[in-house]
Automatic annotation (TrEMBL):
Keywords: ATP-binding, Nucleotide-binding, Transport. Residues 1-21 are annotated as: Disordered. The keyword ATP-binding applies. Signal peptide: none annotated. Residues 22-251 form the ABC transporter domain. This is ABC transporter ATP-binding protein.
Length: 252
């Protein structure tokens, strides 16, 4: 279903690229509206090597989405530094994208229009080629002219993924991207994401509350509790029981 990168005819600008290294140094963020300790994250110090597939797990409210919003530049840390490819992340960046649980697609645009939306500095042909390539990679080559409401939930998430790939990100951020989908679709999409990652070696930070999914997908797993890292280990070295126990220690 997923077109192989070698098979597809693509412009030179879309050859395989690698991800950027991500680094967090003492990153702290607290929501100003909350005085309660724990409403936020940090201090977090974390190095994600270029091309790593990192999964972040944690119970609801543990700070996973806050972390991704910081990485995407949507929130500014009150302390500490985030850098991507050696450059400080200071705000939203055209080559940084976040895929969320509900694909935030523009309903009035076609699938191709949505995928091409964030592309800047390209002429019409380059843009069309980039969009077609991204859609082919997620198995939706024939769907460019459809509207989002004509797609299944799984297909909409594929479009969101295509939109993210189209901008050729150094870092791909995914916030529980498959959790609203049925089990079979979720598994299929997870495996397609892995295949795409193998091809592109983009750096991935994938957030999920599903521990099996994290261990299946990630090379490395980080567990968050109340905004703090409570486990950081290669996925191969962690069992599902370990991970469950670490997160269950949470208390009320
Ligand atoms: P997760 O994604 O792991 O469920 P979040 O990052 O959404 O967790 O939330 C972490 C903590 O920050 C929670 O205590 C949550 O209630 C709080 N929080 C999240 N968003 C906001 C917000 N916009 N304003 C105030 N507090 C928030
Ligand atoms: Mg969340």
């Amino acid at each position: 279903m997923t077109a192989s990168i070698q098979d597809s005819v693509r412009p030179a600008s879309t050859t395989t690229r690698s991800g950027a290294p991500l680094s967090l140094d003492g990153v702290t963020f607290r929501y100003p509206s909350r005085r309660r300790a724990g409403a936020g994250v940090g201090p977090l110090t974390l190095d994600v090597p270029a091309g790593e597939f990192l999964c972040v797990v944690g119970a609801s409210g543990s700070g996973k989405s806050t972390l991704l919003s910081l990485l995407a530049g949507f929130l500014k840390p009150q302390a500490g530094q985030i850098s991507l490819g050696g450059e400080a992340v200071r705000g939203p960046h055209p080559r940084l994208t976040l895929v969320q649980q509900e694909a935030a697609l523009f309903p009035w645009l076609t699938v191709a229009g949505n995928v091409g939306f964030g592309l800047r500095g390209l002429n019409r042909e380059q843009r069309q080629a980039r969009v077609a390539d991204a859609l082919r990679q997620v198995g939706l080559a024939e769907y460019g002219a459809r509207r989002p409401h004509e797609l299944s939930g799984g297909q909409r998430q594929r479009v969101a993924l295509a939109r993210a790939l189209a901008i050729q990100p150094g870092l791909l951020l995914l916030d529980e991207p498959f959790s609203a989908l049925d089990h079979a679709t979720r598994t299929a999409l997870a495996d397609e994401l892995l295949a795409l990652w193998w091809q592109h070696r983009v750096t991935v930070v994938f957030v999920t509350h599903q521990l099996e999914e994290a261990l299946h997908l990630g090379q490395r797993v980080v567990a968050l509790r109340a905004g703090q890292v409570v486990l950081d280990a290669p996925a191969k070295s962690v069992s599902l029981d370990d991970l469950r126990r670490t997160l269950e220690d949470e208390g009320p």
